[in-house]
Specification:
The protein is α/β, with parallel strands linked by helices. The protein is built from 16 helices and 17 strands. Helix 12 packs parallel to helix 15. The structure holds 1-deoxynojirimycin. 1-deoxynojirimycin binds next to loops.
């Protein structure tokens, strides 16, 4: 069924997804924090049906649920509502309608591993040993000496166990103590969480991005985890998590079974896209999340690119690994930025942003872009005493994620057009220069380059839905071909700081270059491309 304009089935395979961190996108209430109305206001920027807009096919919204914001939305206190600071269910419904009217699908974050300590489920569970919801969370007696039940560390530093004086037990939290883990071994929890999915499906969402979903089941006996012999020596003293091998706290067999159940549950609702946030511990664990013949995640996110050195050979090996391992029914994705990682432009340098964009939008798989990367937003500068991210506060400033969540820079006006008051995180110093309005008016800007790339991709079956073959190329270059039926695209990316000559055979024309706007005809011979240049050649 093809409900919306522009789309062919399955949309999640062909389309470009754009992640919005709602707190930082656009503020319409003047409280310094982004909101859903702000997203509605910016939908035309994302896709108004013309190449003057970005042209994305879907948005993924990081959490907008009621939350005390100990982990900025990933501590949900009510799965069935919208945080009043961000809007209401009515605003959400309007957002879905307005997005759909423009052919934009809406994917929402689903946080299944833990709730906020403020969720009524936890309040009840916490209230007494015999509360009917006691077993909705993971409670254990202390060891005989009063210590925590095992050696597991919290992702955000220290032990994963919090002592509760009033009921004389510990509860388990893989993240903050304000984020207690749900007990997915209790069928009532499974039912309640499936009801959450149904609630949003009935409201018309087109998919879910499932937060740290590999962690929802723990080994039933929760044995001590072994130390990781390869852990770096310089970890912070409280980084227990970083020192351990995570063999009992994630990717248990039951998780894969539950993903199959999620897949079954969403099927009656049409082309729903299930994206899994899978932490990368080797391809064998991650590949399993596709299930068999499409009964798992549609897109277990390929996050590994962000952790690789930005070198042609390493990136080539990662692409090759995906190409060689994925079974026919599995479709890759490519993520180069998100709300947990160093900004793309900071990680690679501004000189590489176009090359990175070309890589992300031409390799086989669904590109998942992060808001602001299209204008080259860099990591914000946050003084250590101003850090808000709990990871940065508890473990160390090197983990601070505020830097990649600074407000979107819309124009050169006050607060970069993001808000009318002081934003929750500081606007970056370059906002007067680096903003949407400036780049909109400059045909050579990064923003306009992203637009061209995305719209080219939209019109090209070879770029969206075809095979990928890596070709021989000079050192420091990644050269590959995408082909479907008679349509063939040849892509060359030069990671070197100098120009290179690349052999080319056949006939074609350069339809897009990171550096040049001319359409250049090519025939067998070689092509010289500049330092950090990438080209897409449409072959005849
Ligand atoms: C992964 C999310 O991406 C991150 O932002 C969050 O802090 C943790 N999960 C805990 O929910």
């Amino acid at each position: 069924m093809n409900k919306y304009p522009f789309q062919q089935a399955p949309w999640w395979k062909l389309g470009t997804i754009y992640q919005i961190y709602p707190y930082s996108f656009s503020d319409t209430t003047g409280n310094g924090m982004g909101d859903l109305e702000g997203i509605i206001k910016r939908l035309d920027y994302l896709n108004d049906g013309t190449p003057d807009s970005l042209g994305v096919d879907a948005i993924w919204l990081s959490p907008f649920y009621p939350s005390p914001k100990a982990d900025f939305g990933y501590d949900v206190s009510d799965y069935l509502d919208v945080d009043p600071e961000l809007g209401s269910l009515e605003t959400f419904d309007r957002l879905v309608d307005e997005a759909h009217r423009r052919g934009i699908r809406v994917i929402i974050d689903f946080v299944p591993n833990h709730t906020s300590e403020e969720h009524t489920w936890f309040k009840e569970s916490h209230s007494s040993l015999d509360n009917p919801r006691r077993d909705w969370y993971i409670w254990r007696d202390p060891t005989p000496d009063g210590g925590p039940p095992n050696n597991w560390g919290s992702h955000f530093g220290g032990s994963a166990w919090e002592w509760d004086e009033s009921t004389g037990q510990y509860y388990f939290h893989q993240f903050l103590k304000e984020q207690p883990d749900l007990n997915w071994r209790n069928p009532e929890v499974v039912w309640a969480m499936k009801d959450v999915l149904i609630f949003w499906l009935e409201r018309g969402v087109d998919g879910f991005r499932m937060d740290v979903v590999g962690m929802i089941y723990k080994h039933p006996e929760m044995p001590d985890q072994p130390l990781d012999p390869n852990a770096p020596d310089d970890l912070r003293p409280n980084d227990i998590y970083g020192r351990q091998l995570h063999i009992y706290d994630q990717d248990q067999d039951e998780v894969y079974e539950m993903v199959r159940e999620f897949n079954q549950l969403v099927r009656p609702y049409g082309e729903i896209c299930l994206i899994g946030e899978i932490l990368y511990f080797g391809a064998d664990r991650w590949l399993r999340y596709y299930g068999t013949e499409g009964d798992g995640f549609h897109l277990p996110m390929q996050l590994q690119f962000m952790h690789l050195p930005w070198e042609a050979d390493t990136i080539k090996s990662a692409v090759q690994e995906i190409e060689s391992l994925l079974p026919a029914h599995a479709w890759p994705s490519c993520v180069l930025g998100n709300h947990d990682e160093v900004r793309l432009a900071t990680r690679y340098g501004q000189e590489y942003t176009r090359l990175a964009a070309m890589l992300q939008l031409t390799v086989r798989g669904t590109p998942i872009l992060y808001y602001g990367d299209e204008i080259g937003l860099e990591n914000g500068v946050i003084d250590d005493d101003k850090i808000q991210d709990p990871w940065g506060i508890i473990v160390g400033p090197e983990f601070n994620r505020d830097c990649c969540r600074t407000p979107m820079q819309w124009d050169a006006g006050p607060q970069a057009g993001f808000s009318t008051s002081v934003p929750w995180l500081p606007i970056s110093a370059d906002a007067g220069e680096r903003n949407v309005a400036n780049q909109d008016g400059d045909q050579f800007s990064l923003l306009n380059f992203y637009r061209s790339l995305i719209w080219h991709r939209r019109g090209s079956e070879a770029l969206r839905n075809s095979t990928l073959e890596i070709l021989e190329g000079p050192p420091g270059c990644l050269v590959f071909e995408r082909q479907v039926d008679a349509e063939r695209a040849w892509i060359a990316l030069n990671f070197n700081g100098n120009e290179v000559e690349i052999p080319f055979s056949g006939e074609g024309e350069i339809i897009l270059s990171t550096h040049n706007q001319d359409i250049i005809n090519l025939s067998t011979g070689s092509l010289t491309i500049e330092a950090y240049e990438g080209v897409i050649v449409s072959c005849r």
